[in-house]
TrEMBL record:
Upper classification of the organism: Eukaryota, Viridiplantae, Streptophyta, Embryophyta, Tracheophyta
InterPro entries: GCP_C, GCP_C_sf
Family statement: Belongs to the TUBGCP family.
Coiled-coil ranges per UniProt: none
Keyword hit for RNA-binding: no
Compartment(s): Cytoplasm, Cytoskeleton
GO CC aspect terms: microtubule
Record-annotated Gamma tubulin complex component C-terminal domain positions: 12-64
Primary subcellular site in the record, as a coarse category: cytoplasm
Protein name per the record: Gamma-tubulin complex component
Species this protein is from: Oryza glaberrima (African rice)
Keyword Cytoplasm attached: yes
GO molecular function: gamma-tubulin binding
Record key words, sorted: Cytoplasm, Cytoskeleton, Microtubule
Amino acid sequence: NSTLGTGGTAPAVKARCEMEVDRIEKQFDECVVFLLRILSFKLNVGHFPHLADLVTRINYNHYYMSDSGSFSAIPGSRPR
């Protein structure tokens, strides 16, 4: 069994962990964009005005969606 403290395995473990974190981050961003699309549609229909605060909180500083309602590229693909 390899551990982080043994020889050359630490870089490989670190690389796998970073890849997994990147995958999770991308999947999270895709799910948030999907949720915002659904919520925005419901808001535009006009039946759920109370969702406006939720959309504002999720989309803080227009990270996922512009004022005009268009979605940016998947935010997880942006450089950190």
